[in-house]
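INFO  loader      accepted 1 record
INFO  loader      residues=119
INFO  predictor   begin
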Amino acid sequence: MKYMLLIYQGTTPVPGTEAWEGLSQEEQGAVYAAYKAVNETPGFTPGSVQMDSPDTATTVRVQDGTTLTTDGPFAEIKEAIGGFAFYEADDLDAAIELASRIPAAYMGGGVEVRPVVEY
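INFO  predictor   done
INFO  writer      dumping tokens
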């Protein structure tokens, strides 16, 4: 079964931020190594682009035929999506195990695992 992994950054330190600079070289290296290991997992396909920060988003909604836009993220969630990936796994348990190794899952964010519907 194919799963989509939606990576919610939350408070996860990311390169280029003050929080990232607050990590030791060893901690930064561990994050890079964890992402490298996840990316090398058979059946894992990382998203092909890096998303910009949520404050650069524009949310689009259509109400009564009128297109409305709002600057920034408007989804009613605590954590903005920072990235995505796909994983071809035998079952949900395998997908959960892989998601638990994504640094965002244990550094202040989370990873949503959702089955992909294939037609």
